[in-house]
């Protein structure tokens, strides 16, 4: 039996606000915060750069976190790279893959700017980019992606779950058609890892990028990038810790993942991320998925029944519910909800301007749910939005 009230005890801020902005960043549970505090107080040293006891302890804890995160995603730890966020992971691929002029990339209009702008910038190097449109509910038809492939297509870059619609894409089918056509595929898992089951080996993608501070419940400044064939690339960032030898004008890189983690990493953040992933695993990802889906289903249904509210996205969605209130700007709605009921929601274009324009709106209000939200909070949200009709009637 899923006990959301027991879960909430590990997130003290929830006693102060109704937090419905977990798509932007989730709250971090007490055990993960305590693990970071322990690092600073008991054994703070640098990673992989010393023989003394603090450096050894730091390195061991950091690499233990890598094992924890990799096993949670069913990925090879040696191919699991720590980054500072999803954006850095995607840019690492864009800047490190051996592109050639005339190569072709297929992506979609659904993408967060982080999985769109890096590919559009490659156009300056002679790379062709095709952007596929979704339907009105934010679903990409895999056949449209397949029809866009050419003999020069090198990569498909697609989100797993849209941060605007909450729509879940059929990434397994898209990955299969990529394999069939000899094309590499990158999955943006920023909104899926920690919210729904993710099995990278079963999925079969070439690259999987996600953030530590979203569904995985870790701190900001942490991210994860899986690279199936790391030997194909040389990281655009080199320096301390990435090389095994330098002779004259020549250098030899360390194997993955070390060669992709230049300089001192976010050591306490990664250690905290490892503890946060243990927390998610203990609760159970399938239970979390069901809980969040039920909350978003209720919220979307009840909000759509209000005459002055328009809800976007499919019926079967992840824990994301975008909507607008007729006659009120999304920013005004968010501000009123915060000031009157301490409800924290996001407003704006959500770093996805093309898909917002596709909806023919300037912005939306986005309520997003996590493992710690409750049905009572859905009630509070719906009642507060219902009360806004007095301002627009």
UniProtKB/TrEMBL annotation:
<dbReference type="InterPro" id="IPR016454">
    <property type="entry name" value="Cysteine_dSase"/>
</dbReference>
<dbReference type="GO" id="GO:0030170">
    <property type="term" value="F:pyridoxal phosphate binding"/>
</dbReference>
<dbReference type="InterPro" id="IPR015422">
    <property type="entry name" value="PyrdxlP-dep_Trfase_small"/>
</dbReference>
<dbReference type="InterPro" id="IPR010970">
    <property type="entry name" value="Cys_dSase_SufS"/>
</dbReference>
<dbReference type="InterPro" id="IPR020578">
    <property type="entry name" value="Aminotrans_V_PyrdxlP_BS"/>
</dbReference>
<feature type="domain" description="Aminotransferase class V">
    <location>
        <begin position="18"/>
        <end position="381"/>
    </location>
</feature>
<protein>
    <recommendedName>
        <fullName>cysteine desulfurase</fullName>
        <ecNumber>2.8.1.7</ecNumber>
    </recommendedName>
</protein>
<dbReference type="GO" id="GO:0006534">
    <property type="term" value="P:cysteine metabolic process"/>
</dbReference>
<keyword id="KW-0663">Pyridoxal phosphate</keyword>
<dbReference type="GO" id="GO:0031071">
    <property type="term" value="F:cysteine desulfurase activity"/>
</dbReference>
<dbReference type="Pfam" id="PF00266">
    <property type="entry name" value="Aminotran_5"/>
</dbReference>
<keyword id="KW-0808">Transferase</keyword>
<comment type="similarity">
    <text>Belongs to the class-V pyridoxal-phosphate-dependent aminotransferase family. Csd subfamily.</text>
</comment>
<dbReference type="InterPro" id="IPR000192">
    <property type="entry name" value="Aminotrans_V_dom"/>
</dbReference>
<dbReference type="InterPro" id="IPR015424">
    <property type="entry name" value="PyrdxlP-dep_Trfase"/>
</dbReference>
<dbReference type="InterPro" id="IPR015421">
    <property type="entry name" value="PyrdxlP-dep_Trfase_major"/>
</dbReference>
């Amino acid at each position: 039996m899923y006990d959301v009230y027991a879960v909430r005890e590990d997130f003290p801020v929830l006693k102060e606000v109704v937090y419905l902005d977990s798509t932007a960043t989730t709250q971090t549970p007490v055990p993960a915060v305590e693990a970071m505090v322990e690092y600073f107080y008991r054994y703070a040293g640098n990673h992989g750069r010393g023989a003394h006891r603090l450096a050894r302890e730091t390195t061991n804890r950091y690499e233990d976190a890598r094992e924890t995160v990799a096993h949670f995603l069913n990925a090879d730890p040696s191919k699991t790279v720590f980054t500072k966020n999803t954006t850095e992971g995607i840019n690492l691929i864009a800047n490190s893959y051996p592109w050639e002029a005339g190569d072709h990339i297929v992506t979609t209009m659904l993408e967060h700017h982080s999985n769109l702008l890096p590919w559009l910038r490659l156009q300056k190097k002679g790379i062709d980019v095709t952007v596929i449109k979704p339907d009105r509910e934010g679903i990409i038809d895999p056949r449209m992606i397949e029809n866009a492939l050419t003999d020069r297509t090198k990569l498909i870059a697609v989100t797993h779950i849209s941060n605007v619609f909450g729509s879940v894409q059929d990434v397994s089918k898209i990955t299969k058609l990529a394999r069939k056509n000899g094309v590499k595929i990158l999955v943006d898992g920023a909104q899926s890892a920690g919210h729904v089951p993710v099995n990278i080996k079963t999925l079969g993608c070439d690259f999987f990028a996600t953030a530590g501070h979203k569904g995985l419940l870790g701190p900001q400044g942490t991210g994860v990038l899986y690279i199936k064939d790391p030997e194909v690339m040389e990281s655009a960032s080199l320096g301390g810790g990435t090389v095994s030898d330098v002779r004259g004008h020549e250098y030899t890189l360390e194997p993955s993942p070390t060669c992709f983690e230049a300089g001192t990493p976010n050591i306490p953040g990664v250690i905290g991320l490892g503890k946060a992933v243990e927390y998610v695993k203990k609760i159970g990802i399938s239970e979390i998925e069901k809980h969040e889906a039920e909350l978003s289903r209720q919220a979307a249904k009840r909000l759509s029944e209000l005459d002055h509210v328009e809800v976007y996205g499919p019926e079967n969605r992840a824990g994301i519910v975008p909507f607008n209130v007729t006659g009120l700007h999304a920013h005004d709605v968010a501000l009123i909800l915060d000031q009157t009921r301490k409800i924290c929601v996001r407003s704006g274009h959500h770093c996805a301007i093309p898909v917002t324009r596709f909806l023919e709106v300037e912005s939306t209000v986005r309520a997003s749910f996590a493992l710690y939200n409750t049905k009572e909070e859905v009630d509070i949200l719906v009642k507060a939005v219902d009360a806004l009709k007095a301002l627009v009637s």
